[in-house]
Design a protein that fits this description.
By secondary structure, the chain is an all-beta fold. It is rod-shaped. The relative contact order is 0.14.
Length: 208
């Protein structure tokens, strides 16, 4: 009658599914969840019908210990079966497809794909591919994307990460190529007015 094959799985950010093999002689089960191995700090005590196994609870992140006892009207309670698990804080998904677009001279648009359940994006711009020298740092709400700013002439790199209340910050997504920003340059009568040269690093505009 003692429950066997105890296991837990995570079906949502804070939802834990408790499973065990249901004994044919059990009428119900007693599930006790604690945040210490001695069961002196009880989080939940639930009576679970056999038909409700697997059984799902919503819990805060932390380390938990649990025990399950089978109950039968004619036999009383079984021995306890024990288990433990760790429910981690959910992590924001890393932003994908970071890209840069030079709109006009030194006006630059930074874009990326919005991450699941993210609210804020931290954008860091540097002249160093290792981001040792931070030139610009800003937090952008998801509702205000894409992020646009004006930069002086130079070579730049940028990275972005996602944040949200109740979630761990994502890893940084780094725009690898770098982008060259160059203001309009007057090269004289030998150049065609408003002609463009496009490269992997950005866009140049020349005017006569």
């Amino acid at each position: 009658l003692t429950p066997v094959s105890l296991s837990t799985s995570f079906v949502g950010d804070y939802d834990v599914r408790f499973s065990w093999l249901v004994a044919k002689d059990a009428d119900c089960y007693r599930l006790v969840v604690a945040d210490d191995a001695e069961y002196t700090s009880i989080v939940r005590v639930d009576t679970v019908d056999a038909a409700s196994v697997p059984y799902t609870l919503t819990l805060a992140p932390g380390v938990y210990y649990y025990k399950v006892q089978a109950m039968a009207e004619d036999r009383g309670g079984s021995h306890w079966a024990y288990g433990e698990f760790t429910l981690k804080m959910p992590v924001c998904d890393i932003p994908t497809n970071p890209s840069v677009k030079v709109i006009d001279d030194c006006k630059v648009e930074f874009t990326w794909d919005i991450s699941r359940k993210s609210e804020i994006y931290d954008v860091v711009i540097s002249s160093d591919p290792e981001f040792a020298d931070i030139l610009h740092s800003v937090s952008v709400p998801a509702s205000q994307m894409p992020y646009t700013t004006t930069l002086d002439n130079g070579m730049y790199y940028f990275k972005v990460r996602a944040r949200a209340d109740g979630r761990v910050d994502s890893e940084w997504a780094v725009y690898k190529p770098g982008v060259i920003i160059m203001k309009t340059v007057d090269l004289g009568v030998n150049q065609t007015a408003n002609s463009y040269v496009v490269s992997a690093f950005g866009k140049y505009r020349f005017k006569a």
